[in-house]
Amino acid sequence: MASHEPSGTLARVRPSPFDVTHQLSVATPAWPRCRHGSDSTDSLDGCSGRRVDPHDECLEHLTDADRAAYLAQLGPGSDLDHRGTSITENLLGVLLDAIRAPDARQALLGTARFEAAQFVGDADFSGLRFRSDAGFEQATFLGTARFAGTEFHGEAWFERARFCGAQFRDATFKSNVWFGEAVFSDDVRFDGVRFHEHARFRLTQFHGNAAFDGAQFSGSVGFQGTHFAGCAWFDGARFASASQLGPLVCEEAVDLSAVVFAAPVTIEAAARRVWCIRTEWAAKATMRIRYATVDLSDTVLAHPLSIAARAAAFTDRTGTEGTEEVLEEQALDGCDTGVRIASLRGVDVAHLVLQNVDLTPCLLSGAVHLDQLRLEGEYLLALPPTGLRRRGLWPVRWTARRTLAEEHHWRAAKGWGAWTSAPAGVEVVGPAGLAAMYRQLRKSFEDGKNEPDAGDFYYGEMEMRRHDTKRPGAERALLTAYWAVSGYGLRASRALGWFLGAMVATVLVMMLWGVPKEAAKTESTGKLIGRSISLTNDTRDPIAPYGPLGQRLTSQRFEKSMRVVINSVVFRSSSQDLTTVGTYAEMLSRVVEPALLGLAALAARGRVKR
Questions:
Q1: For 37-124, where are the alpha helices, taking DSSP H only?
Q2: Considering only Cβ atoms within 10 Å of each terminal Cβ, which end of the chain, N or C, has fewer?
């Protein structure tokens, strides 16, 4: 608990803009002032507490006899008006005992006026029932303010009040409640509170943690400009008709786990973390977030949910003429303003739209309908390690592409260094599961007419199939060849490299062994039979070249070899006579080289296809 200090020196994390307003309201009260310490009724010196009629002093400064007489006339349901009065813990206990029936544990209050009052020590209003309005505007609680189980049947005002610590656990507000511009210097508990009408926390400052676990918000909710220096817990809360939550600033985590949003809602928050684990969205919702890592594990989406990263700082209309002021985010300075999605495990993402988010750490295993996930704007996914890496005896360079966090975890578990290991407690997904996730994401992008980006997911799918040891060996061998030759039909440079290599190899084969040493000559032999001559033409078989390499690697033989190779690529037969080796080399090149050229064209087409 915070130490009890005088109201003027109440410890705060940051200067409060409400101090001057508070001091003015106390210095110029709108109620009959206590005469204690003052020479005249018009003097502003002395006590600011309200006089207890018909006396000239406030409750604190009444004589013992007058105070006893005043308390004796009180009973259940009495109105209390002690504005501006300094009330100690003991004095408050005596006052509340006076309105408690002898046979009842719950005290009953009528209209309660404690505006600008100062409660020295703990202020325990637990279990009370306010049957009419309760005013605590600009009140100062130097100890812990306890309203656990308290019932407010009328409207309740806590605007610009200052709390060292507060507990409203299981309280009930049956009418409107205002906490606007209030300051909570320590942790505050609103667990299980039931707000039947409007709940306003506009510009409220929570300098510690704030717990709204299990709270029931039946009316509208106002957290515009609210600042949480610690965590804001709403675990298990229910928002029946709230249409707006925020914009608010939270220096730590906003916990919306197991929260039920029954009506369309827009959430705007700047926070380090936002937890939406098992959150139920029963209507359309929009989240505009800054700085945060968002966990959506097991979220239930009955209607579309849009999560977008907001680039500009949030603003709120705080001026009297509706002017907008930028919310303070100094505690979050230095953090990345982008939004990171930590997990979509167990989520049916058919209704999910992610815009300008970072999916680098996102866990997707267990998500349903990944083929219907919509990614818009600029989105980031994990990339493979860069540069040359040694795997075994051979250096390797990983292909640049978008990958899933689970693939990083699997490769790291296999000992392929520089990949990101799985966090503690996260199960590593095998190649079969990864292939299914890549396949669904590929379909999502293809359905969205985004063929170029779908190629990365197709590459990932084929990689996982190639590494899946449960698949037949022949299939894996075929996939390995497909990967090596053209990167699964997606890497034009690789296919072109093989194509050029095949052409060079064919040219060399032709120059060394394919093109004969000299052109074949035709020999004619004849035989005279009577008056006629019978001639027979015979062409010699091409003679394979022999001799030193310098005699075979000539420009003339190069030109002949290139003509043969180019004709093979375009499926034309050259007129060049070839040796047996050259004939088979030409036949092979007619199959291999056009196929490689086709793979390169297919890969290039995939990158520019609309």
A1: 64-72, 89-98
A2: C
- Given a cut of 90, whether residue 575 has pLDDT beyond it is no
Task: Determine the residue type at 586.
Answer: E
Q: Can you tell me the distance from the alpha carbon of 246 to that of 221, in angstroms, rounded to the nearest whole number?
A: 9
Could you read off the pLDDT of 197-223 as tens digits, one per residue?
A: 999 999 999 999 999 999 999 999 999
What does the alpha-carbon distance between residue 510 and residue 72 come to, in Å, rounded to a whole number?
121
DSSP 510: I
∠ CA 278-190-285 to the nearest 5 degrees? 40
- Closest by Cα among 111, 103, 148 to 132: 111
Q: Which of 396-405, 537-546, 555-564, 597-606 has the least mean pLDDT?
A: 537-546
- Burial string for 549-582 (b: 16+ CB within 10 Å, else e) reads eeebeeeebeebbebbbebbbeeeebebbbbeeb
* Contact by Cβ (8 Å): 88, 72: no
Yes or no: say if 123 and 92 are a contact pair by the CB < 8 Å rule. Answer: yes
Predicted pLDDT of residue 16: 35
Read off the tokens for 274: 């936002």
For residues 335-363, average pLDDT:
95
Rounded-to-integer distance, Cα 276 and Cα 233, Å: 11
Q: pTM of this prediction?
A: 0.82
Query: What is the residue-wise DSSP string for 405-462?
Result: HHHHHHHHHTT-TTSPPPPTTPPPP-HHHHHHHHHHHHHHHHHTT-HHHHHHHHHHHH
